[in-house]
Design brief:
The complex is a heterotetramer, with two copies of chain A (241 residues) and two copies of chain B (304 residues).
Chain A lengths: L1 E12 L4 E7 L10 E4 L8 E4 L2 E3 L2 E7 L3 H6 L7 E8 L11 E6 L4 H12 L5 E6 L8 H7 L1 E6 L6 E2 L2 H7 L6 E5 L2 H10 L3 E4 L15 E4 L2 E4 L6 E3 L6
Parallel strand pairs in A: 8-9, 8-12, 9-10, 10-11, 12-13
Antiparallel strand pairs in A: 1-2, 1-7, 2-6, 3-4, 3-7, 5-6, 13-16, 14-15
Chain B lengths: L4 E3 L2 E3 L3 E3 L40 E4 L2 E4 L8 H15 L4 E5 L4 H10 L6 E7 L10 H5 L1 H14 L4 E4 L7 H10 L4 E4 L3 E3 L16 E4 L4 H14 L4 E4 L5 H10 L3 E4 L2 H4 L3 H15 L16
Parallel strand pairs in B: 3-13, 6-7, 7-8, 8-9, 9-12, 12-13
Antiparallel strand pairs in B: 1-2, 4-5, 5-11, 10-11
Helix pairs in contact in B: 2-4, 4-5, 5-6, 6-7, 7-9
The chains are: A alpha/beta (241), B alpha/beta (304).
Bound molecules: flavin-adenine dinucleotide (2 copies), flavin mononucleotide (FMN) (2 copies) and FE2/S2 (inorganic) cluster (2 copies).
């Protein structure tokens, strides 16, 4: 973990409710699955966000407006400086898959982008299953298509297949050995019940984000683990939902 | 600038002590900075048996702090003694304060007694004010008789000085302070968290899984200062002040109010280097305020 | 969006009420905006005789609020009735809440009774929780028996509904709430200020002339929410919630916790248009949260 | 009273501990003696400052670093926007004097600058007595000299006369009919005791600054008065010290 001051390169809307924030700074030594915590003016706690892309000293996150803090974040401007804790949490384990399936639910698709990049760096083109509520929420589609074979589903069928990631997974025959999923807790739970051979990136309300407060401890088959420290990536077969 | 203070004959190089529950068992912070800049540290609340604590969410944000309802998650006293403290010992050379929670007098007594042989620990802080544990914790801290009796029993079996951590959720904290001193407390620490709540704007339901939790952070600072001041008037044992401290200026004010040492809690969570920064800032602030010996200012607010 | 709420049969166009002591007698704000946007207002604490209050300094800043020790400065009930309320009547057409402080049962009774004939006042708020008046004020608010008895006596002589304003400086606010309802209170309002202190960095002495004062502002918000929630569980009279409210979102949370109406205090002091802005923001926030009728959400946090 | 957003034109040091902040905004309808309240990021209460100069839509204040808020103010930058309450308090009464004496103690000299301008506009050149702790604290000297006959005193004699404003007033024969004073409470008290034919601009710790909270009420011979509303300028013979 490091506390860094990063400069805002850009902060732009990808769709009505989703933004992309690009930061530039000294020393970004991170991999897919890890997250950062951003300090916002006038908010007490930092806000955790997965890295969506890491490239040399550029760090990209993709965030969805869900509350006061993320609403405020849309006002961040180019050249602003942000205090960011970097290198938080563990990483996805890429060794688990020869034929990976990446499953993203809504904004949970964000960390899968960096994961897809890393698989491509290993010469593996993953299958990518993305679920959104509706067409308006889709983001990064063209970018994902460059990195893998993409299936998109929307709850209302306004784009791609109609359904959610779990229903698609159950009905469509997708060839994969291990899946990597991030999205709403409900989705992750349904996935884990359906197939335990996967990795799940979890969320929890956090105070510190670096292991000091026990605010984010979940129960696993191997005892209590902190989402921010032993996680956010857990094996689908160990999480006790 | 002389930043030294003494607690029960034990000399601290400065009065800055990370507060229990906001610093884990310390060693994980050693990757961030050299912990030896800290006067001491108070370990995560420890119980006789391992505890998972409360379900999630355990954290809710507030405009000037946070609510937590960890519920005393800890690996149990045996593991604390055999694993956590040895790890800490490798990265921090001074002695520390153990923090003990419990559900019954016998649990407190047994847990405290386990620290008797632990050289790394120079005092035990008795948490009788945790609002997050049902049927225990805070109940011991809001009734003077129950508090006094608990301290009496614990003192019988402890070889270490006992610091009693007081709850701010009472009408008269001075009364409780007097009671625990009557029971033999060697010192008191305050304040623990204020009971607080937040609600989910969408569902209307409490955010914290168990409803309410403990509120801490800069928002509690004026209440903490007042209570330290009140307790200083009421008892003569050393006071460890805490609650919303976020700068060396705050440390000075706490000491004016009556604190011999000062704990830094929530600030560690939002600014990982907070305790270090405060310890570094302290001599500079002393110079600015023309304070040569920090011990001289303890209770200065009470001078006529 | 239906923002109406009812208090004792009196309909307010919305639940936004500036809190006592932070809005004077209202009319001075009329130069800033049309007061008729407000659901009602609570007048400055009024006593039988005129009072100058405490010496200066009466104000100390805090990281997330302020400490005040005004000491109930007011021109006395007779002048309030003959001068202040008529001035207010010219610029505000709805009815208001009188706020009464005192040192003795007879003083409270006599002052409250004077409002019996005042048509502008639809309810009287009994301040039994002012931490800034020696030998009165808060003492009535921390002992359930004394509180109950006071309310009983006041009720005998009042023709208006009585709202009892509760102190947060107690171990169990629900107990006090039950006691005042036992005494006949028609409603309760909470929270008054938390006792707090600050110290002068240079001298070490308390900043407030009389030592401590009442702490209010966003820093008390989580405590206020918790207490409103607790009191809602304990009594069935309407609750007016306050403490750190600074936005329409905060109003919604207060109502989830159990408030029928919401008072805005300190925020008026740092942002003179605060109450207006909150009243304007409310319908927009209701739309965002899909709330059609505001009365539907009162106590929603308690639904299983 | 008005709540306004004013743009920072400049914020520069006049000496080690004194800064001048120039703001520009819509509608500055103020006179000498009045004050503004400035909202600072990360501080709960606004900070009150007398206007040192008003010129069309430009408003100047001069402030001294005494605590955390004024220390933070030195970081305000050109083009920043500040939320300011303007038109607060009453004004000096210029009609009281044909031969005015302006008495400033330290930073209390600031509001006298606008007062001196107003006397000049009436064709009256005031006598101006300024006291400072030492040479390093002197500010606006050349500017004051253009507007009146200036006597400077310092406690340590490092500049001008040695002494304070009250001692100078007692020993030097200064020809005036009414004085206008601003400075530390001790100075104002000594002045009022020595000569009651003057106007005093007082300070008090304030919460609101516009009459709502009673935080700043002083006792006067005519009953309680609010420094922020009936003041800050009071007649020397009415204040009960
Ligand atoms: C490890 C991790 C990675 C994440 N990655 C992303 C990402 O890449 N993109 C993205 O848009 N979001 C991500 N989130 C969720 C994101 O942190 C929240 O949406 C955000 O904090 C909400 O802030 P707010 O102020 O808008 O919401 P508010 O509800 O106003 O926030 C109040 C408090 O609740 C917390 N909170 C609210 N919702 C959540 C949530 N779902 N998870 C955790 N804390 C929450 C906030 O952090 C804050 O402390 C991640 C969360 C975690 C734990
Ligand atoms: C009507 C009026 C006009 C003023 N005009 C000027 C001026 O032109 N130039 C100038 O430099 N100063 C002026 N002051 C004093 C100035 O407001 C304080 O120096 C400033 O608020 C201190 O803020 P701080 O955060 O640095 O100090 P801190 O001590 O950190 O502030 C803490 C709190 O105390 C208050 N406070 C501290 N000292 C004073 C004081 N002396 N008077 C009132 N409140 C205080 C602050 O406003 C704040 O609420 C004036 C005050 C008043 C009431
Ligand atoms: C996440 C968290 C966990 C805590 N756990 C404990 C604990 O185990 N034992 C204890 O005595 N106090 C515990 N506390 C209370 C703090 O030690 C401290 O008393 C309180 O937070 C007030 O200080 P602050 O405002 O500086 O945080 C905890 C506080 C927080 C925020
Ligand atoms: C300056 C000031 C004066 C107050 N005077 C009174 C009063 O006269 N009577 C009363 O019942 N409450 C008084 N209060 C308490 C408020 O009405 C309110 O209960 C408290 O400030 C909490 O709300 P807030 O956090 O929104 O300010 C006063 C508060 C302040 C800040
Ligand atoms: S958020 Fe503090 S331990 Fe995970
Ligand atoms: S500061 Fe509020 S009335 Fe003067």
């Amino acid at each position: 973990m490091k506390e860094q001051n990063l400069k805002v390169v850009s902060n732009k809307a990808l769709n009505d409710s989703t933004y992309e924030l690009v930061l530039k700074g000294g020393d970004i030594n991170m991999s897919s699955g890890q997250f950062v915590e951003i300090k916002l003016d006038n908010f007490y706690l930092r806000r955790p966000f997965s890295v969506a892309k890491i490239q040399k000293s550029f760090l990209t996150i993709v965030y969805k407006i869900v509350g006061q803090g993320t609403k405020e974040m849309t006002k961040i401007c180019e050249n602003d400086n942000l205090s960011v804790l970097t290198e938080l949490g563990n990483t996805f384990d890429l060794d688990k898959a020869k034929k990976p399936l990446l499953i993203g639910g809504g904004i949970g698709s964000a960390p899968l982008f960096q994961l897809a990049i890393e698989f491509n760096e290993r010469g593996i083109r993953p299958t990518i299953l993305l679920g959104f509520r509706n067409e308006a929420e889709v983001f990064y589609l063209e970018k994902f298509k460059k990195l893998g074979d993409v299936i998109v589903a929307t709850d209302d069928g306004s784009f791609g297949e109609m359904g959610n990631t779990v229903s698609i997974l159950k009905t469509k025959k997708i060839d994969f050995d291990c899946y990597y999923a991030c999205g709403p807790m409900m989705m992750l739970k349904a996935l884990a019940e359906y197939n335990s051979n996967g990795q799940l990136s979890l969320e929890a309300r956090m105070a510190c984000g670096f292991g000091a407060c026990m605010g984010c401890s979940i129960m696993t088959k191997n005892g209590a683990k902190r989402v921010c420290k032993e996680g956010p990536v857990f094996s689908a077969d160990e999480v006790v939902f | 600038m002389n930043t030294k203070v003494k607690l029960f004959g034990h000399e601290l190089k400065n009065p800055i002590i990370p507060a229990s529950g906001t610093f884990g068992f310390g060693y994980e912070f050693a990757k961030l900075y050299d912990l030896n800049i800290l006067g001491s540290m108070s370990l995560k609340g420890t119980t006789l048996e391992p505890r998972y604590g409360n379900p999630l969410p355990r954290i809710a944000e507030c405009p000037a702090g946070l609510i937590n309802a960890i519920g005393l998650q800890n690996p149990g006293v045996d593991k604390v003694l055999s694993e956590e403290i040895p790890k800490l010992d490798k990265v921090y050379s001074d002695k520390v304060i153990a923090n003990v929670g419990g559900h019954s007098v016998s649990e407190y007594v047994e847990t405290v007694a386990k620290f008797n042989e632990c050289e790394k620990v120079f005092a035990v802080e008795l948490n009788i004010s945790c609002p997050n544990v049902k049927g225990g914790g805070m109940a011991f801290g809001t009734d003077p008789k129950i508090a006094e009796n608990l301290v009496k029993e614990v003192k019988k079996h402890s070889l270490k000085p006992i610091i009693v951590k007081l709850s701010p959720n009472v009408t008269d904290i001075a009364e409780i302070a007097k009671a625990v001193c009557g029971g033999g407390a060697d010192g008191v620490s305050l304040i623990n968290t204020l009971v607080g709540m937040r609600f989910d704007l969408r569902t209307g339901r409490p955010i914290i899984s168990v409803g309410s939790g403990g509120y801490s952070g800069v928002g509690v600072y004026p209440v903490a200062l007042r209570m330290v001041y009140q307790v200083y008037k009421a008892v003569s044992v050393p006071i460890i002040g805490m609650g919303g401290v976020s700068s060396a200026y705050d440390v000075i004010e706490m000491m004016y109010a009556g604190a011999t040492a000062v704990m830094v809690g929530s600030q560690n969570l939002i600014e990982p280097l907070a305790s270090k920064h405060i310890a570094e800032q302290l001599p500079r602030v002393m110079e600015e305020l023309k304070i040569n010996r920090l011990e001289d200012i303890i209770g200065r607010a009470h001078n006529e």
